[in-house]
Amino acid sequence: HTSPVFLALTAENGEVLEAPADDQSQVNTWILGGGSSHDFGRWFNTEDVALLSAGSDRHVHYTDAPGDIVGALDPEDVLIFCTNQGLAAPVRRAIEEHLDAGGALLALHAGTWFNWSDWPALHGSILGAGARGHEPLRVFEVRVEDTDHAAMEGVPGSFRLSDELYRAEAPAEAVGFQVLARGFSEHTSDSFPVAWEPEVESGRVLVITLGHDGGAHEHAAFRAMLTSGIRWLEQAR
Questions:
Q1: What are phi and psi of 121, to 5 degrees?
Q2: What is Dmax (Cα atoms) for the chain?
Q3: Which of 38, 60, 123, 215 would staple 130 via disulfide (CB 3.0–4.6 Å)?
Q4: pTM of the predicted model, to two decimals?
Q5: What's the rounded Cα separation, in Å, for the pair 140 and 46?
Q6: For residues 230 and 155, is the Cβ–Cβ distance under 8 A?
Q7: Mind listing the pLDDT tens digit for each residue in 73-118?
Q8: In angstroms, what CA-CA distances link 171 with 35, 144, 174, 205?
């Protein structure tokens, strides 16, 4: 796990004390963020960590250093993959091995982009689809297509939010997937899946393409989708 982080405290006599280190061995939900074009620190770290930690015994840890997850993921952990930065081969192997061992993965927004040409397995055998483009940041409608799926529990049947509607596409010979929710452009006739469950051979995977900024992360429907999605992934433990 990552190096411990210490919090400086001041005693009444002015002496600086060190609080106990955050025990990363207790982490069971990892958020791998970082990269370009997004405020990862505000939305995927501060906002999502607080949301997923509230009212639960979940230990959520955000990192923008991909190497932190190598050797740190346990099969009972959930990995939220929302980065768009370069990933070394050991990081890619760690994610594949995590799923092979029965672990869970949520690919979120930037993590669904076709960023890694040297890692075709991500969109082929793991996610089943991804995006190479999106509509401008603006309001569109989302409709839940599988209201019985546990990952959509508490999510309104339809809602509007300001976000980037990712133009999801499936590469040739990719695994199939079950569409859970679809986004409908209010400016064109286009619609694209925004949440789906890939038919993976091992582990459990959920894909959510929403989440560019506060238009999503502060939206009640997105927050419900994220929390219900994590709860569903945790059932794989």
A1: -65, -25
A2: 68
A3: 123
A4: 0.89
A5: 25
A6: no
A7: 999 999 999 999 999 999 999 999 999 999 999 999 999 999 999 9
A8: 24, 24, 6, 17
Exposure string (b/e) for 58-68, b if CB count within 10 Å is 16 or more?
A: bbbbbbbebeb
Question: β-pairing, 166-169 with 158-163?
Answer: unpaired
31, burial (CB in 10 Å: exposed 0-12, middle 13-18, buried 19+):
buried
Residue count of the chain, please give it: 237
> How many angstroms separate the CA atoms of 194 and 46, rounded?
23
* CA-wise closest residue to 93 among 59, 118, 114: 118
CA–CA dist 74, 160 (Å, integer): 37
Q: How far apart are CA 44 and CA 42, in angstroms?
A: 6
Residue 105 near residue 121 (C-beta atoms within 8 A): no
Which two three-digit tokens encode residue 160? 């509007």
Say if residues 55 and 184 touch (Cβ distance below 8 Å).
no
